[in-house]
Amino acid sequence: MDGGAPGMKSRKLDVLFIHVGRRSADHCDTLIMPVGLVMLADHLERHGLAAGVLNLSVELLENPRFNVERFIERCGPGVLAFPLHWHSQLKDALACLARLKRRFPQKTTVAGGFSASLFFRDILALPGAPDFIIRGDAEKPLLALCRSLLRGVPGLARVPNLAWRRQDGTVEATPQSYVATGRDLSGLSYANLDLILNKENVMKYSDEQEAPLRRRPGERPPDCGKVFYVAGRGCANECSFCGGASGTQALANGRRGAIYKPAGTVVKDLRLLLAAGVRKVHFAFDPLPRAGYYPDLFSRLRRAGLRFKATFEAFGLPTERFLRAYAEALPGSRVIVSPESGSERVRRLNRCDFYKNPDLLSRLALMKSLGLEHTVCFSVGLPFETRRDFLATLRLAGKVKKLCPKGEVFMSPIQLEPFSPLYRTPQKYGASLDWTSLKDFLEQKPRTLGYSAGLMGEREVWEKAALFNRAMR
C-alpha cells in the first residue's frame, strides 16, 4: 500500500495534524480544512517543534491506495492532532482517531476545534477517545502540551484549556484561561502553506467542499489556488441558526464579542500567500459589518500593490464605503450576501444586522455598477417561516435575477448547529429538536436538518429548496 503520493512531503515530525472529512458511499465532503491548522503548525515550528498538516480526505481522493499508517511510521510524530471543528466530520474523524490510537498506542492523540470544545466531556467518554482535548483557542495550550509530552516539561495541570479522562473515567479540566487577543493574533501567521504535506493535492480541491469518490474519465478538480482567510475571531451577534453566535463563542472559546487580526499583519500574510502561488482569497469573517476594519484593510492592500481575485462572505449588508473600497482594491471580486428569507419578518426574527429588501437591491445595484460579482444565498425552513414567506423569497429572488441576470442566486436549508441559539433555546423559536446530544450529531443522516420549525416538514423544506434552485437556473 502507498505511504505517500509523488511530490508529497515526508520528514520527521513531532506533531502531525490530520484533517478527516465525511465520507459516504459515493462522495466525500468537509474537504476544506479549518484555516487554523496551518497557523497552529506554524506556531509550533516557530517554537522549535517540527509540525505538518495532512488533509487525509483529499489525499484519499487523489490516491486511494494511500496508507496513513505507513505515512505516520515514516514521519514518526509523537503527537497526532485532529481538528473536530464541524459536526459533519465528527463521526469519521473520531473513527480515524480511534483506529490510529489502536495502531499506535505509544503516540499521544489530541483533538480541538469548535465541536470538540462544546462536546469535550461527551467525546472523552467515547471508546477510543483522544487522550486530550483543547477547548477554545489552542495556540498556547497546544504548545505547552506538546512541550510537556515531547520535551519532558512537567505540569499538565498548568496547561490552560486542557481536558482529559482519568483512569477512573472522570474528566479532568484545567481552567479555560487562555483567550486570544488581537495582540496574540498579530504574532500568528496563516501563510506557511509549505507545512501542508500534501499541498499540491489540497490546492487542487481548494474550492471544493465536497467531491465524488470516482470522477468520470478525464474529469479533474479545478486547481484554483484558493485559500480561506479568517481575519479575527468571535462574534457580537446571536443569529438563530448560527453555530458561531456570541453565546456559542462564549461556551466554546470563553470569548465575548469579536477581535480582529491587525490589518498590517494580514497584508503581510497575503503578500506571502500570493508569493506562494495563491490566486484567490476567500474572506470568511465579518462579525461587525459596519465597522471600518475592512475598508482600511482594502486601502492597505491597494497601497501595497497586492491584486488578486477575492470572495467576501458578508455577515450583514455591506456598506457603500466597504463596497467602494473593495472594488477599488480588488476589482472584479465577489461578495456573498445571505438575506436568508425574502420575508422581512422572518429575517428580523432570525438574523441580527437586519436590513430591508429595498436596501439589499440597492446594494446589489451598486455592486453591479462597481464591477463586483455577487452571490445571494437564501434558506428555507427557518423558525417562524410559513409557505407564504417562501413565496416572498421567490419574489425577492426574481427581482435579484432581473436586476443582475449573471449573478448567482441559490437556496440551501440550514442544519442545526451545536449550541446555536436555536439549539440552546428552541422554545424561543417555536422549534422542536431532533438532535439534542453528541450521539444525535454523530448519527445524522443525509438531507436531515436536526430540527423542525414553522409549518413545513423536513421533506417539504428540501423539496422547496430544489424547486427554488431549478427556478433560478
Overall shape: it is globular
**Strand neighbour order, sheet with most strands:** 4-1-5-6-7-8-9
Tell me the CATH topology of the largest domain: pyruvate-formate lyase- activating enzyme
What's the level 1 CATH class of the largest domain? Answer: Alpha Beta
Q: Distance between the terminal alpha carbons, to the nearest Å?
A: 44 Å
Residue ranges: pLDDT <50 for 5 or more in a row?
none
The largest pleated sheet is described as: 7 strands, mixed
Name the CATH superfamily classification of the largest domain: tm_1862 like domain
Helical amount among residues, as a percent range?
25-40%
Question: What is the CATH architecture annotation of the largest domain?
Answer: Alpha-Beta Horseshoe
Rounded radius of gyration (Å):
22 Å
Supply the number of helical segments: 19
Average pLDDT works out at 94
Whole-number tally of structural domains: 2
Structural class: alpha/beta
Number of strands: 20
